[in-house]
Every structure is written in C-alpha cells, then in structure tokens.
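Notes from the 1:1 (GR / supervisor)

We went over the backlog. Supervisor wanted to see one worked example end to end before approving the batch request, so GR pasted a single chain during the call. The sequence is below; no edits were made to it. Supervisor asked that the structure be written out right there so they could see what the output format looks like.
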Amino acid sequence: MDVPISGRPKKRTTGIIGLNLLLDGGYPQGSLVMVYGTPLAGVDLAAMQFWKDGNEEGTYLMNDGDVEIGMIDATELHPEMYIPQMIGGRIVVDSLSTIIIRYGIDVALKFLRMAREEMKTRGANMIFIVYTGVHTSVEMTRIMRAADIVVEFKNDIHQSEIERTVAVLKIKDSAAPQRLLPFIITENGIEASTTSRVV
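Structure output shown during the call:
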C-alpha cells in the first residue's frame, strides 16, 4: 500500500461524511471492512454509498437481494469466482452471511484471505456485509478477526423514537474511535453527524 510522505496510509472515502471524520479521512486503502448489523440498521445503505461515492470504478457483488443496475448477480457464483469479477477500488460483497449459509464458515474465511491479498495488491477496499442474529458467536469472532476494520450499525427503539448509531470497533494497527456516531436514514441514504458532543 502506498504511504505518503506524512507516514500515514492513503485513505478512501466511506461515502458517509461523518464516518470519514470519525475515521480521520476514510478507510485505509488495501483493507477489508466488515459492516454488520440487522437488515434494518442501514448496512446495505452504507455499502451502497461506499460503492457509489466519487467517480471511482467499483464492483458490487449481490448474492442475496435485488440486483440493481451496475451490480453483478453473484447468486450462482462460488466465492472463489468473486475475485476475477472484482474491478476498481470500491468492492462490495452483499453479503458474506449468504456465503457462510451456503458454503460454510471455512469457505467464507478462505475467500476473505484471498480477497485481502487482492485488496492489498491493488490498494482497493472491500466491504462485506454480515447480518447479526444469523451466525454463532464463534463464527462472528472468526469473521471479525479476519477483517481489518469492523463497523457496527445499530438501531434501538426508545419510547417513540428510533435511535441509530454507528461504531467503529476495530481498525487493524490503529486505535479505534471511542465514540458512537449518531445517524439518520433519509431518501438519499445515511446522513451521519459531523459534530462531536462535548461532555
């Protein structure tokens, strides 16, 4: 991965301004990013915004939802066939949960190892979606260990309001931010807070 004169790795925008600020610029190039939460927490929107951000080419491999224009239908593809399909610097696998259910955890982890080498070589980033409540705690632990960055999207209901937050739980070789980032879901996708509350 290229490291500029400042000594910090180059970063790729997340597609969400507030999350970029939390990550000091975005995802380090060459990293695997695990995005997880319930299907209603906004994980698919976060992946979509990452894929569509900027003028950079990317690949969206869809294996468990509606295939939209520009996406690749990966429903019938074995995970080993994903790598040759990956073009550009912004790669999304929606979802790793489906790979695990169809092929097992060991196949999914082998795929992540192969993807890591590909991302490092090209300086690309791959986001993979994992759904909570689907996998065993052992599987979740193994997936999180395989990821360079782990981002959790949560939604909690408090009386008459839905509270949504995103937390960066892991950044390989770096300290993870210590605060939750509030966000809302709009017709344009995820809008995260760009201010920090002083306590």
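Supervisor's comment: The longest strand covers residues 161-171.
Batch request approved.
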